[in-house]
Automatic annotation (TrEMBL):
A biological-process GO annotation: ribosome biogenesis
GO molecular function, one term: cysteine-type peptidase activity
Gene3D superfamilies: Cysteine protease Prp (3.30.70.1490)
Keywords: Hydrolase, Protease, Ribosome biogenesis, Thiol protease
Family: Belongs to the Prp family.
Cited PANTHER family: HYPOTHETICAL RIBOSOME-ASSOCIATED PROTEIN (PTHR39178), RIBOSOMAL-PROCESSING CYSTEINE PROTEASE PRP (PTHR39178:SF1)
Annotated signal sequence range: none
Pfam families linked: Peptidase_Prp (PF04327)
Protein's UniProt name: Ribosomal processing cysteine protease Prp
Amino acid sequence: MIQVTFNFKKNIVTIKGHADFDQYGKDIVCSAVSVLTQFVSEIIKNENLGDFKTKDGYLKINWSNNELSDKLIKYLHDALKSIEESYPDNLKVEVNK
């Protein structure tokens, strides 16, 4: 299962694990989460809106407080929640308050 945790007070989101929906290369849940997180990470990196750390099965995004990064992270949250609704056994999205 992919576990995503948003901490809006600290401006951190962590994504870890594997969806295990299907075999490698055919896992649509993994693919969807990967595309979304890579898209947001690249914009944050290219626009100097924060940084991120990656390793196999793990991504941590630390974003700066500004309008664009806040919108990107909200988009990421909403999109991942939508996927979670369809695949609750493969993706869990949490918000630390």
